Amino acid sequence: VGAAARWYAASVFPGKEDVAERHLRMQGFHSFVPRREKTIRHARRIETRPAAYFPGYMFIALDVAQQRWRSVNGTFGVRSLIMQGERPLPVPSGLVERFIALTGKDGLLDFSGGLTA
């Protein structure tokens, strides 16, 4: 993530976080989807798999002055960036960085160490 880049939230279509991540990466954008383990029961089988911690949302690092951020809205899987008027609304500084720091090697959020700064 570049020095001038900030994190922004984007609304994604239900269950399309992986598709959106892949297509954003192909365009050169850096994205992050906080994940947790989800237990699914289906046809008498129980399985656990990674699932979005905030279903329908993901974070994207952008430098709105340098990057063509409007192309994010046309990316497969993405509904739109969360906007404030004509510009994307940045998430509070340090929030996504904290989620990334709490993400284990398995790609899942791990709050067991606490939320102290």
Would you kindly provide a written description of the structure presented here, covering whatever features stand out?
The protein has a four-stranded antiparallel beta sheet, covered by helices on one side. The chain has a two-stranded antiparallel ribbon with strand order 3-4. Strands 7-8 form a two-stranded antiparallel sheet. The mean pLDDT is 92. The chain is globular and about 50 Å long. The chain has helices at residues 17-26, 95-101, and strands at residues 6-12, 30-32, 35-42, 45-52, 57-62, 78-81, 83-84, 87-88. The chain has a single domain (6-101), classed as NusG, N-terminal domain (Alpha-Beta Plaits, 2-Layer Sandwich). Helices cover 15% and strands 34% of the residues. It has two helices and eight strands. With 117 residues, it is an alpha+beta fold. The two termini are 21 Å apart.
Essential attributes:
two-stranded antiparallel sheet; 2 helices; 117 residues; alpha+beta; 15% helix; single chain; globular; four-stranded antiparallel beta sheet; Alpha-Beta Plaits
